[in-house]
Amino acid sequence: MKFKxxxxxLEIATLLNLDFVGNDDFEIxxxxxxxxxxxxxxxxxxxxxxxxxxxxxxxxxxxxxxxxKCPEGKSLLISDDPFREFNKITNHFNPFVxxxxxxxxxxxxxxxxxxxxxxxIGNSVVIxxxxxxHPNVTIYDNTVIGxxxxxHANTVLGADAFYYKKRPEGFDKLISGGRVVxxxxxxxxxxxxxxxxxxxxxxxxxxxxxxxxxQVGHDTVIGKKCLIASQTGIAGCVIIEDEVTIWGQVGMxxxxxxGAKAIILAQSGISKxxxxxxxxxxxxxxxxxxKLKELxxxxxxxxxxxxS
Length: 308
Fold this sequence. Notes:
Blueprint: E1 2-8, H1 9-16, E2 19-21, E3 27-31, E4 41-45, H2 51-55, E5 61-64, E6 75-78, H3 82-93, E7 108-109, E8 114-115, E9 120-121, E10 126-127, E11 132-133, E12 138-139, E13 144-145, E14 150-151, E15 156-159, E16 164-167, E17 170-173, E18 179-182, E19 187-188, E20 193-195, E21 201-204, E22 209-210, E23 215-216, E24 221-222, E25 227-228, E26 233-234, E27 239-240, E28 245-246, E29 251-252, E30 257-258, E31 263-264, E32 269-270, E33 279-282, E34 285-287, H4 288-307
Parallel strand pairs: 3-4, 4-5, 5-6, 7-10, 8-11, 9-12, 10-13, 11-14, 12-15, 13-18, 14-19, 15-20, 18-21, 19-22, 20-23, 21-24, 22-25, 23-26, 24-27, 25-28, 26-29, 27-30, 28-31, 29-32, 31-33
Antiparallel strand pairs: 1-3, 2-6, 16-17, 33-34
């Protein structure tokens, strides 16, 4: 999430009432999670296991719960609860704004786009030309949709990320300040849910087709010309490269990459990254022919045991 204008380290420290390490005028451009940070970003870290990763990342300001040696060219914000402070920044620079109408006056809707009855369009949404949005679709604030996109009934774009920190009193939610971005010529079926990024974009690239009842988690990037069948569940921070085919009821864990032109057969469970250009099956999934051989072997063993 980038700020509308650059801020200084002193400004952010004053906003949060925190001690800091670095020059007062050290430039800060936004906030981001560790996997998408860039120069000028704040990243937060609250566990020693991840200190080195955060300090050595592309982020140039680290919001951390211990005063440590500051890497050259970077700055620190010191807090007893970086998670809490990260939420404060999101709320301050990207506050929730309630809607009083079904289609926001700040939405930008392109020529030739058709909105069927009961569509909700949030604040600052951008929709391109010649799109068709069917009844009861909900499009949250700041979503960006390209040209020639079809979205079927009851789909929701831009719900919050499923991201919580466990505390003694319960689960504390990390506030989502990102967006959903749908590129040109994408079709999205009925009753799909695509969550916005925590700080970045959940993206579906050009030409991809998504069936009914598909869930896409926060900050996931789906490549060009992919096919995703019904009841697939994709966790957050997944990268699906171009021309991947995913059949029905596939489930994926977070933070993995599916290589270009991979094919994942129905009801497979994906627990790790998969190379492109191959077919996969099973749970945990492996190369389809090998998995089918394994299953056939198990069947033979069981038959032999029963006949002995």
